[in-house]
């Protein structure tokens, strides 16, 4: 199995979906950790040194902005896959994976990256990517159908992280917190 490193849990799942049993995924920022302040552990740095690829979100996640150059320098042979290539960052929101439509683009980028570093797995990656893209297309259709009859298009959210979902389904997110600042009365 090839070692593939990712930044966040949703992206790790995408890589597992495409890579299947041909990849071992290392997650840099564990669930619940703050990507603004997280620092890699020694074990993660060992995984970086042996990784075939780093699948980065690429949309402005703080951890990547702070650490990507250092991580790449630890393993110059490691391929860097920009999973958000082809996705336009909307309103400065780096949470591109929250839209099934964006997730499909990310799956294509992961498929290309894994096929590049492991050409022997290309057929398996393509089959897995096609299957998962079909699931995402169905999810997109289901969400659109469920929301088509909704009269209210606004939703309240603590952190403004669903701008892509809102854009894709004609919704309006109303964030309580913005730019890391706690809400005021």
Overview of this protein structure:
- With 185 residues, the chain is α/β, with parallel strands linked by helices.
- Helices cover 45% and strands 14% of the residues.
- It has helices at residues 9-19, 42-50, 62-74, 100-117, 122-148, 163-168, and strands at 2-6, 23-27, 53-56, 79-82, 154-157, 172-175.
- The strands form 2 sheets. It has a 4-stranded parallel β-sheet with strand order 2-1-3-4, sandwiched between helices. A two-stranded parallel ribbon has the order 5-6.
- Strand 5, helix 6 and strand 6 (172-175) form a beta-alpha-beta unit.
- The longest helix has 27 residues, at 122-148.
- The radius of gyration is 17 Å and the shape is flat.
Helices and strands in order:
Elements: E1 2-6, H1 9-19, E2 23-27, H2 42-50, E3 53-56, H3 62-74, E4 79-82, H4 100-117, H5 122-148, E5 154-157, H6 163-168, E6 172-175
Parallel strand pairs: 1-2, 1-3, 3-4, 5-6
Helix pairs in contact: 1-4, 4-5
Lateral arrangement of strands in the main beta sheet: 2-1-3-4
Please report the total strand number as a whole number. Answer: 6
The averaged pLDDT comes out at 95
Radius of gyration: 17 Å
N-to-C span:
52 Å
Order of helices and strands: EHEHEHEHHEHE
Unreliable stretches: none
What percent of the residues sit in helical stretches (DSSP H or I)?
40-55%
| Biggest sheet details | 4 strands, parallel
Count of helix runs: 6
The global form is flat
- Which structural class do you get from the secondary structure elements? alpha/beta
The portion of residues forming beta strands comes to 5-15%
């Amino acid at each position: 199995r090839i070692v593939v490193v990712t930044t966040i849990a949703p992206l790790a799942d995408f890589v597992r979906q495409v890579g299947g049993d041909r990849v071992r995924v290392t997650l840099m920022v564990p669930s619940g950790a703050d990507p603004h302040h997280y620092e890699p552990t020694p074990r993660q740095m060992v995984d970086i040194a042996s990784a075939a690829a780093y699948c980065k979100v690429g949309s402005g996640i703080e951890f990547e902005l702070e650490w990507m150059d250092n991580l790449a320098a630890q393993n110059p042979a490691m391929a860097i896959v920009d999973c958000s290539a082809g996705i336009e960052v909307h309103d400065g929101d780096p949470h591109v994976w929250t839209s099934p439509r964006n997730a499909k683009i990310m799956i294509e980028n992961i498929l290309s990256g894994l096929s590049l570093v492991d050409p022997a797995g290309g057929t398996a990656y393509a089959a897995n990517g096609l299957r998962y893209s079909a699931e995402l297309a169905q999810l997109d259709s289901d969400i659109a159908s469920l929301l088509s009859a909704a009269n209210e298009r606004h939703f309240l959210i603590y952190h403004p992280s669903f701008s892509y979902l809102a854009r894709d389904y004609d919704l309006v997110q109303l964030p309580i917190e913005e730019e890391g600042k706690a809400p005021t009365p």
